[in-house]
């Protein structure tokens, strides 16, 4: 029973000093700064942003080559050499009403739908 009274008395004294006086303000601020710096270190160690860079060329869509003529197939294969040629083709020929000198209207639409 004396143990509980002693614990309660110690708790009351700490509570009094923490709330009614400024005796514990400096130690509390020091502890808070240590905790904040530890939190910043943990955040900096685990908060690394992952930037994904893909050099992989977009793969040729399946089911397209079978529908193309030999001339269209050669042009189709030339488009898929790297990501920049695919992006250039997409921006130039995959808009509304765009026409391509080699691909027919339906095949152009199919290619644009697949990329």
- Count of individual beta strands: 0
Number of helices: 5
Question: Gyration radius, to the nearest Å?
Answer: 35 Å
| Oligomeric state of the chains present here | single chain
Percent of residues in β-strands: under 5%
Low-confidence stretches: none
Shape: rod-shaped
| Helix and strand sequence | HHHHH
Helical content class: 55-70%
Output the structural class: mainly alpha
- Largest sheet report: none
Query: What value does the average pLDDT take?
Result: 81
State the distance separating the first and last CA atoms.
Answer: 78 Å
Task: Tag the structure with descriptive keywords.
63% helix, mainly alpha, 115 residues
What does this structure look like?
- The chain has 115 residues and is mainly alpha-helical.
- The chain has five helices and no strands.
- The protein has helices at residues 2-20, 25-46, 70-79, 83-93, 105-114.
- The longest helix is centred in the N-terminal third of the chain and has 22 residues, at 25-46.
- It starts with a helix and ends with a helix.
- The model has no long low-confidence stretch (mean pLDDT 81).
């Amino acid at each position: 029973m004396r143990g509980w009274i002693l614990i309660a008395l110690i708790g009351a004294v700490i509570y009094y000093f923490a709330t009614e006086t400024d005796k514990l303000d400096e130690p509390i601020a020091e502890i808070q700064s240590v905790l904040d710096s530890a939190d910043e270190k943990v955040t900096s160690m685990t908060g690394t942003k992952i930037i994904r860079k893909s050099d992989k060329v977009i793969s040729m869509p399946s089911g397209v080559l079978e529908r193309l003529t030999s001339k269209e197939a050669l042009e189709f294969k030339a488009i898929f050499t790297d990501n920049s040629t695919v992006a250039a083709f997409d921006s130039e020929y995959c808009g509304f009403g765009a026409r391509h000198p080699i691909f027919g209207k339906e095949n152009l639409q199919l290619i644009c739908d697949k990329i």
